[in-house]
Structure formats: structure tokens, C-alpha cells
Design goal:
The complex is a heterodimer of chains A (436) and B (171). Chain A contains 13 helices and 21 strands. Chain A is α+β, with helices and mostly antiparallel strands and 436 residues long. The chains are: A alpha+beta (436), B alpha+beta (171).
């Protein structure tokens, strides 16, 4: 696929106030192959949370960016991420999803590796020549592996900027709000029970959907108008469509929707405990920070495929297996100091909306799969409009600036551009968009 | 083995495997025919409906993130949503066909019983076919001459909801 073809996939007229994406972007095999190289091959990708490998010897295995990974904590307490394929002939070395181990043995020829990935033993070692050095045959470390406040990321491009620089100050602050809303110095932990599902849809549809408040009321009216009412809760979710909410570009494709916190079974049922946590945050970080961290619902998007949703305390990531099919993984990331009662209420709150059997997510799955079927006519009906709020002074959560920010970064990377991308609607505001 | 009776006063005379079979089969018919209000009436009015996480089939819903952990109030809302017009995931509705088999009584104790069956639920919607495979573990409570479902646990065997993507009907 050549650059003039890619150039035509996004039509961005900041002056005139129109923004549209060609639906070929969602269906084309060549676009998909290029995304694997230029997006998933070059960006930081969420790999897990340090609480999943809390103790020395703990490990998890999972696919990240299509690669099988083994993440371990060694005897010194250091976390490492390795390609979970035997350096000898390629078999998957560790076949468990998680657990605790002293070492990892590939069953194929019994090569055995330590928690630090080093080769420990090779049956019939004397058959190898002097040119065979065990130190060169350990598990392959991922090119880059960094954590930010417990969130672990990998990158398959060794030249990528460090993780904090990759976030930039604005996205980093948003992440901090979610982490600090746990209460004071409390740690977060990934809770038991992972959600592993899929959508027969292009992955970029889930990027859009995850930071799209505009669809909230039409798509999810059964949650806001029926389910909450049945629980005796007055919904005030219409705040998302009013000033006081915001949809923002956070630089280099990252974005957020912020809405004044809406009523849920958790906010109403655990008001006292949540207020106590808020006081801890205020004591530690000040009133304004506590206001930001506690009084808003945030859907934070970290380019290219990580979503943090504060309302349900969700971490969600996804990866395209094909242009029209993605795998989705989601976990609950909750304060480790929750009382058992509060934790149970958080579980109830999370699954009431989010996940493959919630009162929200199945309608999103159905909608995004419907979009993908609609894209079958991309020759005849080629454009998706993403211009909402483009000329508004301060776009609100039901506007689409945060989606345009994603698409601008996507387009720049697909065009092979390096360095920062101006992702806002107005080019004359570079300060907020620049990551040094 | 037909039954596993853990208590001496096991109410074998009150609850036979064929009773259990009839209960499961009639429940499946109500669900496949979308007679959901009628189905709801077969449950105790404090019943819970649980679908454990796929990676932790034996988990407790208070200490793990389930797929479904409905109280009766939530389940009633779920049913009414399914029968309403704005449940987009089930509008138009799926066709489902349940094959329920391998009935066993796991335990009886006075007015309580735990029973199990295997299931394969086929779902057809929007030109897609999905199979949901697993087992039920129901806790029954005696209500006069009837046994009612007090806890309804549908434990899936799949490792992930792929390519299903969702669980949008009552399993």
C-alpha cells in the first residue's frame, strides 16, 4: 500500500470543520498488515499489572500485540517479559496461564530456563560444539519493557521513547487520577476473574466506541433508563451531554472523555466508604486533585489499544487477529485496601454494565459488529463522519475530538511519520500537544 | 451413578432423577421459547443467577469478577430488558436450542437439594452460529409441593467467549 493511498484514508479539514475516515481503513488486508508493522510494532502496548506477578516466582502468559509473552518475577523481585517461545525450536515454553514456578521447561527437548530467562539446562549438553554458548540461548527478552505505577507495557521497537515520555504529561495525569482515586497511598490490584471475549469487528471501532459518549444514551438506554430505575437509582447520565463534561485530546493520539460522576449502584450504595477514600485523597493530594480524581467518570484512551474506565475500574485492551475480528481482554483494577463488602459492590457494579454479559457491553458488541457488516459496502458508502464538536470552543464528552486525536495519530504513523503529531482541532495550540 | 446422597434424611422419595430431568427440560423449553416471565416464576423470589468467570469456574461471586451475578431484582430487570425493544444485542432475538443431559442429584438436605446437568446451547443470530457448552449446578428449595430454583449457576467450559463475543441471552 503506497502513501498516496494511505493519505486518502483520512480527510481532516480543520479550517472548514469536517473530518471523515474512509471505511477501507476498517476492512482492507493491506491496511491491517501495515498497522501490525507501523502501529503495533512501534507503540508501547499494555501487557499486564504488577499485582499479577506479586511474589518472586509468579508468572503470567498472554499474547500481547500478537506475540506470546511470559512475564515473570524473579528471585530478586525483578519483573521481566520474555517471548514465550523456545529459543531452540520455537515451542511455547510455558503453557499455563498463570502460577508460580522455580523454572520453565520446554517439553519438546527439555531445555529449561530460569525466572530471569537464562538457559539452565540442555539435555546432552556435550553434543554441542564449543561455539554453543548457553548465555546466547536464553528466552528472548522483549525489546522494551517498562512499568508505570504498576502498569506494565512492552514495545517491540527498541528505539521507542521511554514510557513516561510516550504518555506525555496530560495522559500521565489522567492515569494518575485513576490510580490515585483508590484512596491515599493504596495500591491497586488486578482482581480474580478475567474477561476474554472478542468482536467480529475492526479494532479501531472499539477505540472509537470506548471514548464515545455520544452513543451512551441511544445505545445504552436500557442500562440508564431501565436497569438503574429497577434498582431505585435516579440516572443523571445526561450530564455527559452538557458543559462540565469534556472530550479532550491528550497528545500523540491519547484522549479522554470526562463526565461529572453519574449515579450507579456503587456510588449510591457505597457512598460512605467512597467518601472516606476521597478524604484520604484530599489529605494527600489537595482539594482540586481529589475533585478531579473522584468527581468525574473518565474513559482514558492510551494509544493504540488501552482503555482505562474509572466508573467500573476497568482495564481493557484488544488486538486485531484479522481486519474484521479482534480479541478483547479486560480486568478489574481495584484498590487493594477495599473492605470485602466494598469489593463485592465493585464487582456487582462492574458487571452490571461492562463485560460480555453486562447490561451495556453486549449492545456495543452488537453495534460494532453491525458497523463492520455495513462496511461491506465501503465502495458505495465510503465515509464515516467524526466531526462532532469540531468547531466548538471546548468540546464536551459527546463530541468527538478525542476520536479525531486517535485518527490523526493513526494516520501520521501509517504515513510513516516519526516524532510528535498535532492531534487537536486547532494547530495554534502546540503546547498541550507536544511531548518532548 | 444416579445419585449422591450426603445426608441420612435424603429426600429421595421427594426428588428423583427423573424429577430433576423434567425440571431441567421444562426450563430449557421456556427459555428457548422466550417465555421468560413464565420462566421467572419457576424461581424462588430470592433466587440468584450466576455465570462464573471462564478462568475461575469454581469462584465465589463476592470475591471474583463474574460474567453474571444477578440478584432476583437484577434478573427480573434482565428478563424485562430481554422482552423489551431496546436490548439491541437481542433485537431481533436470537434463536436458541438447548440440549440438556447428564442429570444428577449432587446433594439433598431437608428442604434443599443441589442438582446438576450438562448443557450445550446453540445460538443463531445475524448469520452467526455460537455454541455455549457447560454445566448447570442448581440449588433447589422446597416450596410446598414444588421445588424452586434458589441459585442457578451456569458454568461454561469455554476458555474465552471467542468468537461468541457476548452472552446476551439467559444461559
Amino acid at each position: 500500500m503506497n502513501n498516496p493511498e494511505i493519505a486518502g484514508l483520512v480527510q481532516d479539514d480543520r479550517e472548514g470543520g469536517t473530518f471523515r475516515v474512509h471505511r477501507r481503513s476498517f476492512v482492507d488486508q493491506d491496511v491491517f498488515e501495515l498497522e501490525r508493522e507501523r502501529i503495533f510494532g512501534r507503540c508501547w502496548l499494555y501487557a499486564g499489572h504488577e499485582s499479577e506477578v506479586a511474589a518472586p516466582g509468579d508468572f503470567v502468559t498472554r499474547r500481547v500485540g500478537g506475540r506470546p509473552l511470559l512475564i515473570t518475577r524473579n528471585k530478586q523481585g525483578e519483573v521481566g517479559a520474555f517471548i514465550n517461545a523456545c529459543p531452540h525450536r520455537g515451542n511455547i515454553v510455558c503453557r499455563e496461564k498463570s502460577g508460580s514456578a522455580r523454572n520453565f521447561s520446554c517439553f519438546y527437548h527439555a531445555w529449561t530456563f530460569g525466572l530471569d530467562g537464562g538457559l539452565i539446562s540442555t539435555p546432552g549438553r556435550d553434543a554441542y560444539s564449543e561455539a554453543f554458548h548457553a548465555t546466547e540461548h536464553g528466552l528472548t527478552p522483549v525489546p522494551r519493557f517498562e512499568s508505570y505505577r504498576g502498569l506494565m507495557f512492552v514495545c517491540y521497537d527498541s528505539n521507542v521513547v521511554d514510557l513516561v515520555t510516550y504518555f506525555g504529561p496530560e495522559a500521565r495525569l489522567q492515569i494518575d487520577y485513576v490510580i490515585d482515586s483508590a484512596g491515599g497511598q493504596a495500591e491497586l490490584e488486578v482482581v480474580p476473574g478475567a474477561q476474554s471475549y472478542s468482536m467480529r469487528a475492526n479494532w479501531k471501532l472499539l477505540v472509537e466506541n470506548s471514548i464515545d459518549s455520544y452513543h451512551g444514551m441511544p445505545t445504552h438506554q436500557r442500562f440508564f433508563k431501565k436497569y438503574l430505575t429497577d434498582l431505585g437509582i435516579a440516572s443523571n447520565a445526561d450530564q455527559m451531554a452538557k458543559p462540565g463534561s469534556a472530550g479532550r485530546s491528550l497528545g500523540n493520539g491519547h484522549g479522554v472523555t470526562e463526565k461529572p460522576r453519574h449515579n450507579t449502584a456503587l456510588s449510591m450504595g457505597a457512598a460512605t466508604e467512597l467518601a472516606a477514600q476521597r478524604q484520604l485523597i484530599e489529605a494527600r493530594h489537595g482539594a482540586e486533585y481529589a475533585h478531579q480524581a473522584c468527581d468525574f467518570d473518565r474513559n482514558i484512551f492510551i494509544f493504540p489499544n488501552l482503555i482505562l474506565i474509572s466508573t467500573w475500574r476497568t482495564v481493557r485492551t484488544f488486538y486485531p487477529v484479522a481486519p474484521d475480528y479482534m480479541e478483547v481482554d479486560a480486568w478489574g483494577l481495584m484498590p487493594a485496601n477495599d473492605s470485602p463488602e466494598l469489593r463485592a459492590q465493585r464487582f456487582q457494579n462492574f458487571i452490571s454494565f461492562l463485560g460480555p454479559a453486562g447490561f451495556g457491553t453486549p449492545d456495543d458488541v452488537s453495534g460494532l459488529e453491525g458497523c463492520q457488516r455495513g462496511f461491506g459496502a465501503y465502495h458505495e458508502a465510503p465515509w464515516s463522519d467524526i466531526s462532532r464538536g469540531m468547531k466548538r470552543e471546548a468540546p464536551i464528552a459527546t463530541d468527538e475530538l478525542q476520536m479525531r486525536a486517535f485518527w490523526r495519530r493513526w494516520h501520521a504513523l501509517m504515513m510513516g511519520q516519526t516524532g510528535n503529531t498535532q492531534c487537536g482541532d486547532r494547530l495554534e495550540l502546540p503546547a498541550a500537544e507536544t511531548v518532548s | 451413578m444416579d445419585t449422591v446422597l450426603n445426608t441420612p434424611q435424603a429426600a429421595a422419595a421427594d426428588l428423583s432423577v427423573s424429577d430433576v430431568e423434567r425440571m431441567f427440560v421444562e426450563e430449557a423449553a421456556l427459555l428457548d421459547e422466550w417465555k421468560l416471565m413464565e420462566w421467572l416464576e419457576t424461581l424462588a423470589n430470592d433466587a440468584m443467577y450466576l455465570v462464573p468467570p471462564l478462568d475461575m469456574p469454581d469462584a465465589d461471586h463476592r470475591t471474583a469478577l463474574f460474567l453474571v451475578a444477578d440478584t432476583y431484582t437484577m434478573l427480573k430487570s434482565r428478563v424485562e430488558q430481554l422482552l423489551g425493544k431496546v436490548n439491541w444485542a437481542e433485537n431481533p432475538r436470537s434463536r436458541t436450542r438447548r440440549l440438556v443431559t447428564n442429570f444428577r442429584i449432587l446433594e439433598t438436605a431437608g428442604d434443599m437439594a443441589r442438582v446438576t446437568a450438562n448443557f450445550a446451547v446453540w445460538q443463531f443470530a445475524r448469520e452467526q452460529t455460537n455454541a455455549y457448552v457447560g454445566r448447570y449446578v442448581h440449588t433447589l428449595t422446597r416450596d410446598g409441593s414444588h421445588w424452586r430454583i434458589k441459585e442457578r449457576r451456569a458454568i461454561l467450559d469455554m476458555e474465552a467467549l471467542r468468537p461468541h463475543g457476548k452472552l446476551s441471552f439467559i444461559l
